[in-house]
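This week, look over our next protein:
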Amino acid sequence: MKRLLAASVLLLFITSAYSAGSLPSVYLSHFSVVLDKATYTALRTSAQLESLADCELVHTQEGSGDYTGFYVRGRQTYMEFFGDPVPEGEHLGHVGLGLTVEQAGGAAIIAAHLRAIFGGKVKIHSATRPVGGHAVPWYTATYIDADDDSAMLFGWVSETDPEYLAAQHPNSPIDHPLSRKQYLAWDFKPDRLLDDVVGLTLALEASELAQLAKELQAIGWTVKREDSGFAAIGPDVKITVVPAVKKGGLQRIDLRLIKQVPKQEIIFGNAKLIVEGSSGRFTFPVVK
């Protein structure tokens, strides 16, 4: 759900007449990050990472665009790494923050709330994906149009099309077509260590930091100021943002594990993974 191309004209009936109490819950779906080639290659070829979670190199076609990424999947969340090749329009350190709703019409409600703060910068996009030789609706997302192509973060709130999973898995029962858990049910490996991503730490410049704080608060997360940054608490996830020195980017990923494990440290190029007890943490060098 990474390539948000041209904004669609869907859902123009939305008004700002939604109260805060009508907000749907907004969850972390996934994140993406562009890594240096050495780190990306080390992750993609690691047998140790294979023991942690379901891992797969995937080439995705979305609308008229395409990209290749390395995916590490948990029960309800997943990680998306880029690095070789780097998708068109991306740059080293760039982070995509993929949030989602599991309520029908939720993306429209979120868009209305965001428009009350960000006005016409709030866009809506719908995506299709080829399935069985035909383009099928994939998701609808709302996002804030970026002023600067060099920004380190791009975030969105998506809603999976209710028919998408049925098209992808025609012989399987689909009980919850909008849920993250259902979306990942065919890939999740309960016999491996990773349960879910439960935390992210980002370093952002002042303007991006301020916008993200406003955006997360607008969609119903609890935002607490911490020194010159903030911590945002959403359903089963915490995003911590600190001021960047120069460019910044992704600093840390916090993981919840399915079972207790002894302490182990694994190096992937310029990244490091430490697992211990029922948790793990990935750390990455900040882009300068």
Notes: Residues 20-283 form one domain.
